[in-house]
Design a protein that fits this description.
CATH architecture of one domain: 4-Layer Sandwich
Helix content: 40-55%
CATH class of one domain: Alpha Beta
Structural class: alpha+beta
CATH topology of one domain: Aldehyde Ferredoxin Oxidoreductase,  A, domain 1
Radius of gyration: 22 Å
Distance between the termini: 38 Å
Largest sheet: 6 strands, mixed
Strand content: 5-15%
Number of strands: 17
Length: 616
Amino acid sequence: MKGWSGRYLYVDLSNKKFHYVSLSEDVLTSFIGGRGLAIKLLWDLNPVGVDPLSPENHLILAVGPLTGYPLPSSGKMVIASKSPLTGGYGDGNIGTRAAVELRKLGVDAVVIKGRAEKPTVLYLSCDGVEFKDGRDYWGLTTKETEEKLEKELGKDVSVLSIGPAGERLVKYATVISEFGRSAGRPGMGTVMGSKNLKAVVVKGCSQPEPANRDELLKLGAEAYRKVKESPSYEFWVRQGTMATIEWSQKNSVLPTHNFSEGVFDYWEGIDGFIMESMKTRVKACPNCNMPCGNVVKYVTSTESGEAELDYENVAMLGSNIGLSPLNKVAHVNLLADLYGIDTISLGNVIGYAMELSEKGLLRERIEWGDYAKVKELTRQIAYREGLGDLLAEGVATMANKIGGDAWKYAVHVKGLEVSAYDCHAAPGMALAYATSPIGAHHKDAWFIATEIRIGRFDYTTEKAERLVWMQNVRGGMFESLVTCRLPWVEVSLDLDYYPKLLTAATGYTYTWDKVFEVANRIYTLIRSFWVREFIASGLKWSYEVDLPPTKWFTQPLTKGPLKGMKLDVDGYMKMLNHYYSVRGWDERGIPKRSTLEKLGLGSVASELEKLGVSLK
């Protein structure tokens, strides 16, 4: 077998044991790696209905058959588990040396189970696993943890760690690496904290041999060249995703005041040009020649420092909470990285608290753009103190606990807070959020640009079909390879490189039909996992789990060129039902038996039926 290692490392923190498990050729060719392998392992290994914070819940670190090879943006890995925030499948990808080093361990994934008796650091090397005492690291920020581990173990190791937020089980705590790279919005850092796992340190030794090294090197070099020859390349290196602030403002999709508006009066104070004036350097993932990590140096009246910025965190910690200029946003972003908090959910829960305060549904007075209050709330969330203890649960739980009309202003899907695009006037993007396999996130389908190009106010079956295609490419192919989608999205690298690279790496012929078959299998198994876990936990499953936030239907925009716009329920349902049809799912959003069998998931159908799920 080439391109893959053909096994995974299984670690049990409870008894400090580990062993290697073989992966069959059929599993690897059918799921490829990354997200595909992660959902396959979670389906097979997790007890049905397990509590996400239970020792029995598994944490998966998975690479793909392209990870680490010399080709554009291949330094990525997926971190996955059952989410403590949503109760369903959760994952995130992260660009870091840890991905390359894990690949060099001679495994396709690391599976972690159990709960350590005391705070622990896992040290993974080609010699096996060391369970190191982590008590001296518990309580440290992510930066302090990484620096201390590198001092102890050497600069040639790579570190994945959690901060105080993960230790205290903040529901949207993330895993941090390299002082600002973050993964796992649905609480992957929370899962680590529940296992008393402070950090995973990785040091590999050798890569798996590709099936056709000459072809892989040739294609990789050609793709690198194409990236730099793109007309978009120079501006991308200058601003990266931060250019999206201006684009979103002009198109009335910039989230403002808890997604109440699509335009922000002070957007120029947080845009890409302001960022350029503050930028000191750029950071890139391993094997990337189009860096997206803009590191800025900032000074406020009370603090100074450096932070790595991109569009999502700046929009959510800027316009969505009414905060400007960029130096203040940058400091809050740095706090989130140090504490190990997802910046998107952080901006969402604070914005939600501000709106509830404004409407008299929350006793505490929190003004839009109150910088001092935002900093204090961020600290309180990380340490679960005061109001922060409630905000640490996420907006869905906040709405349930506060009661009354609070649910009307909660902006989430399936419990995951929406990322940074307002959809009052973007029904296709609303559908993308609603059907994302982890909850409301743009990673699987950044549909908004396509929608604006083809007609943003239309509710068409064409949009549903295009969305499925885009999800299969972004969330199915890229998340399983595992490589970054930005060379394609931002500088128009030809998509045809990827099946060719996959074929060269593995020796198996991957046509587009084969790639889409794998993607459909991954999405259908993830959806089956959601259904299984909801039903096993006594929760209802229906099409209602695939609805976007209520306020986009009921509270029209009051500012900007699209004033008065809101989503139409009937039009949205037409698109959702067609989406289900294209996916081969029934009117509840549950995969049909024929779809499961066609994708080689017949055993999944049987397990769902044992739980009482009637399959059409």
